Amino acid sequence: MLMVFLSRPYSITPKRPLFIGILANTMLSTVPGLSGAGPNPMGSLLVPVLDAELIWQGIITSTDATPNTPTGCPTPASITRAVLDRIGVSPLFINAGLVHRPTVPVLDLLGQAGGDPRDGPAVPDAERLYKEGVRIGKLLSAHDLLVVGECVPGGTTTALCVLRSLGYDAKVSSASVTSPDSMKEEIYAAVTRRIGRSIPDPMDIIRETGDPMMAVAAGLADGFPGTLILAGGTQMLAVAAIIKALGNPLPEVVTTVYVRDDHAASCDKTAQDIGVPITYVDPGFGEIGHSGLVRYCIGEVKEGMGCGGAMMLAALLGYSPEEITRSIISFVSGYSP
Amino acid sequence: MLMVFLSRPYSITPKRPLFIGILANTMLSTVPGLSGAGPNPMGSLLVPVLDAELIWQGIITSTDATPNTPTGCPTPASITRAVLDRIGVSPLFINAGLVHRPTVPVLDLLGQAGGDPRDGPAVPDAERLYKEGVRIGKLLSAHDLLVVGECVPGGTTTALCVLRSLGYDAKVSSASVTSPDSMKEEIYAAVTRRIGRSIPDPMDIIRETGDPMMAVAAGLADGFPGTLILAGGTQMLAVAAIIKALGNPLPEVVTTVYVRDDHAASCDKTAQDIGVPITYVDPGFGEIGHSGLVRYCIGEVKEGMGCGGAMMLAALLGYSPEEITRSIISFVSGYSP
Prior knowledge:
GO molecular function (chains A, B): nicotinate-nucleotide-dimethylbenzimidazole phosphoribosyltransferase activity
Protein name (chains A, B): UPF0284 protein Mhun_1589
Family (chains A, B): Belongs to the UPF0284 family.
Oligomer: homodimer
Largest interface: A-B, 23 and 23 residues
Order of helices and strands of chain A: EHHEEHEHHHHEHEHHEHH
CATH topology of chain A: Rossmann fold
Shape of chain A: globular
Structural class of chain A: alpha/beta
InterPro entries (chains A, B): Nict_dMeBzImd_PRibTrfase, Nict_dMeBzImd_PRibTrfase_arc, Nict_dMeBzImd_PRibTrfase_sf
CATH superfamily of chain A: Nicotinate-nucleotide-dimethylbenzimidazole phosphoribosyltransferase (CobT), large domain
Radius of gyration of chain A: 18 Å
């Protein structure tokens, strides 16, 4: 196979890596039609809890949900679960602000779920969450590498608002084949009517129109002394943009080729505009003969719950592309055709 | 000063240590007269939350409580706070089962508060908590040393029940100058009337008459590959006894000389009976001229929230006894005469 698994050459071998999954809600995910996560708008709020449950346990037990989209496409949490289990890495979940209580072990930062930024400040305790993130980042300094994923349904819209407020002419990706771009633009327009187009302080931008994950991820990057890789698409580019605006050293970003190839989004251009190094993982889902996973190639799901970062971590630890994709096929075949 | 700070010679210098505080409740702390923690029996349930708040923030903000006993003796959490702050180590708190929600970042294992073992099984999900402890222990394997403290008001009585059920002729310590020994014996007698004197499986013993902290601490010891030191008095000896009964390698124990010198308890003898190495820390509170701390020497408080372990960790990291006690005096002088 001539497939290039990682888009950039990498020579580091992490000795003591940790995979983090930051869980949060934004009430934007309950706006009908905006988020592709969950069975329906209110159900989207439960997705971070179910994703964490799947990754920690290998199975969802608190509801009868299957980790597939309605079209039979395995969720990104399935990929993260399969890969982390294969490489023997237990994730550390962080609750940055959720509506529902998690069902598996989670480091609780006592944040509130993010509000609808059209109605008022979305993350009133952004500063506190950032500072807790800094402390947790220091606390984790025994690790040489942090791979930081996220699960925030509706989070590409907060990412759009944050990137635009920071001055980037960005377009964000989505978990849907057809991104509800005009809805996202309408929400950003409504936000600007409330807060204006330009806010100088990046912490104020998170507070007004971000989500709790962003504050925690930016804090982790500030406090952690080793290598930190933000694992996600345009949502993590928003975090990278915040980190830059704060004047802190830029981390790296990793996502999948499916986000890069989303022509409705500006992933690679925005990464360049920010100046953040970005790596694309290509697990070759088009050629592995799985009717669900192949849907990633037509633009469904694309990324989430740090699945690109989990695959990259496996590669850095010496697992071959074949081993990695085999572990994914094996896991998702347990519940999907 | 000729004081011997650590009772055993130590040559290890931890490179990547972590201090853990396991928080839990047992409903036994609400039995009037049994626990010396908190302002009153029901108030004892809040103590782990306030202790964690003090250690994380340096100040209690959610109530107007001062971290002193009614006689003006600084709580052990004050000592832990002072020392960890001095040596720059952030603690990781674990919620093993609490009545009240913590107010600072805590890794939530979704446990229930321990029940009264006279009425029924005290920790119905002991097995699950143990297994989560094992996973967290593995997750923390980047560290070379874990110092594991606890805060479980009423926990010396569950320790008595567990040690006796495991066949040890033990007497436990307490946070009071005069331990309510006869009450503890009456509770153990009532427990034996319910479950009998001999239960072969140590996990069943935790379930019937232990507390949630014990299950998690024993699991951590099983999962963590490095050096693990249980920081506490007779409560941690109960954990060590469980670990031995499970057939797992024994950790070490550290506590203060004030527990060793408690003639109502059998600390050193029970450690020998178990065969667990135990280190006693002597911070010399009798000679430092603080009217509150000197009360440790007459048997008040004695130990708690891993304060002996925090002081030992500081010594292992190269801090002198003078630096360590000076940091404690400085901190407690901020709120107490």
